[in-house]
Amino acid sequence: MRPLYFLPLALLLSLTSCSVLVTADLADCHKKDFAAALDAITPQAQKGYAQAQYCLGNMYVAGEGVPQDYAQGLSWYRKAAEQGNAPAEANIGRLYYSGLGVPQSYAEALRWFRKAAEQGNSKAQNSLGWMYHEGLGMAQDYGQALYWYQKAAVWGNAPAQTELGWMYAEGEGTARDYAQAMFWDQKAARQGDALAQYNIGQLYYHGRGVKQDYAQALYWFRLSAKQGYARAQTSLGLMAFAGEGVPQSYQHAIDFFQLAAVQNDVDAENVMGRMYMTGLGLPKDGWQALDWFLKAADQGNAEAQTKAGWMYFTGDEVPQDYAKALDYFTRASKQGDANAEADLGLMVENGDGVPRDYSQALGWYLKGAAQGNRFAETGAGWMYYSGELGAPDYGQALAFLGKAAAQGDVHAQEDLGRMYEQGKGVPQDVVLAAMLYELSVRGGNKKAEAHRDAVFARLSVAQQQEALALVAGWHGGELPVVSKTGGRL
Questions:
Q1: Which of 32, 47, 133, 424 keeps 20 to 30 A from 208, CA to CA?
Q2: What is this structure's pTM?
Q3: CB atoms within 10 A of CB 172
Q4: Rounded to a whole number, what is the distance in angstroms from the first to the last CA of the chain?
Q5: Class for domain 1-119, per CATH?
Q6: What's the confidence (pLDDT) of residue 103?
Q7: DSSP result, 270-282
Q8: How do the domains of the chain map onto residue ranges?
């Protein structure tokens, strides 16, 4: 999801926007001699010159040459707006949009933006496009958003060009068209727009509409990052972390992540948490990991919420706290995070901090399994196999455990091996059982060792050889459903 792109009010109200000067003396505005500018502007504003009234409104709103006073700024904007001054109308809209000096009101912001936009003010056109795009004060309307962005973009408004590029890239209000996305992003990027530069980097990184090119991606990410754009800094960190287009370097990755994290970039915070959690590039430190996950989680990052919840659930390196685990899993599940759904299933199935409820547990597992989550598939498969809901349902168990085992879930492989060993829901096949137990053990599941050793001890040499050959030949994906030498012992 793209970041909010609504230019800061202070930037939009810069006195350099007073391009049509009422007198030569107003050049003091551009020299930052605000006292002299105030002396020059005030008499002319009082005489009713709209441009002077607009500039004086800017001075009060920005606090340049006078104490910041939004009400006074609004008063002067209104005087200029009464004469049809479009920049003043646009800035009244921004005050209402942000609730500065007036009660916040999208409806009023919309009204003033429209007045200015219909006079051809490109900043107001961009702002109007944004409100339609986000559905602020009205029903979301991509068609209207596209219309106003296009009007602003042809006048060279860089933020509008960037938003137009986004809409073409995502197919919002129009057919997806990466060539058009690149066209508009490049126009904005040439004006130094950091978000457009980042978006071009993304197009090259993913090979969208262009041949994938890490060198070009790095070039554009670096341009954006030099302007302090946090998401570009995070992207450079991820490329350094993975060694994509640059030599692999955890230290360089950390440097970029820290630059972005200082700006509260949620992805950088989440990655920092993962690095501390796993000990990749940083000393393994549960408390540091949790701290970073919580920073990202509080900004709504579902993965970080799930990670924080898991740390509280397991009590590894931080005190166990089922209530906090439940809170973070629930928050992530509301965003459709499949891992969180699987974790909630586990909590409810075991009664960890909540009443045990097998029916509810299965419901959570099925939600996660519908997204192809192997942990949820394993949980659902086990519940059907064990008969926790009543009579076992080996057909359903086979379906869910088979999917999870094919994704490499070691517990599903163990449970599926048990089904083949016992001939429950499938024809008994001890060679496949041996294969599955061995895969589970090699994946790190020590609990499967006893099952593997017991089965292998009972196999013939030919069966042992086939089981090991099946293990060696499996590289993920679909599993065999019958062996050549297997069957009953």
A1: 133
A2: 0.83
A3: 16
A4: 56
A5: mainly alpha
A6: 96
A7: HHHHHHHHHTSSS
A8: 1-119
